[in-house]
Amino acid sequence: MGFVVAVDGPAGSGKGTITKIVAERLNLTTVDTGAMYRSVALECLNKNIKPTEIEKINEILKDIQIDLKRENGKQKVYLNGQDVTEKIRSKEVDDCVAKFAAIKEIRDKVTPIQRQMGENQNIIMEGRDIGTVVFPNADVKIFLDCSIEERANRRYKQNLEKGITTSYEEVLEGIKERHKLETEREVAPFVKADDAIYVDSTNMTIEEVSEKIIEIIEEKRKNK
């Protein structure tokens, strides 16, 4: 097993941005587990399959191929050989990914893939259940949090940059609904691991959060 850093946190807490920075500075491989669930959700959308149609979902899961590749310094996501890096970030996927991610059959397919990634390399993996389910024995566990209003504000600004036209109020309601789904689902509910280090990024800059997490990781590495 390589050196594993687990970063869990709600949507909009800055996990994706922070893990990329930390990975680059500490020479870790970054793994965005949300991209895997988004890929499954996208495939279901492409085939007009609803979250309630478990038999059809199982058929998709038999042959689905999801690959995370680093190209020109950026993570690319491939779904059945097609680059879907941009498509999985669409509003349509945003609106339904939490429902698909709550399905046991999908989690049972994705979790082993995530574990394999940490077997022979040093990684920083971000998601919702990395420190509780995927890598309960991770070398470092971070729970990156943020106020729901600030999370909505960040996501709203990201949408504007991508040309997605939604109001702040719509984004806030969407985040509240997703948080409810993720914390109340039966399979791998989104909770803080007991031994995770809590970091609140609400009033911190990206640089400040990155530095704090790097300090935590380096301290753990020294004592390993």
Describe the structure.
- By secondary structure, this protein is an alpha/beta fold.
- It is globular.
- The chain contains nine helices and eight strands.
- It has helices at 15-26, 33-46, 54-63, 91-101, 104-117, 130-134, 148-162, 168-184, 206-222, and strands at 4-8, 29-32, 66-71, 74-79, 82-83, 123-127, 140-145, 197-200.
- The longest helix has 17 residues, at 168-184.
- It has a single domain (4-218), classed as Rossmann fold (3-Layer(aba) Sandwich).
- Helix content is 51%, strand content 17%.
- A five-stranded parallel beta sheet has the order 2-6-1-7-8. Strands 3-4-5 form a three-stranded antiparallel beta sheet, with helices on one face.
- The two termini are 14 Å apart.
- The mean pLDDT is 91.
Q: Taking Cα atoms only, what radius of gyration do you get, to the nearest Å?
A: 17 Å
**Total count of strands:** 8
Order of helices and strands: EHEHHEEEHHEHEHHEH
Average pLDDT figure = 91
CATH topology: Rossmann fold
Helix content: 40-55%
Question: What is the CATH top level name?
Answer: Alpha Beta
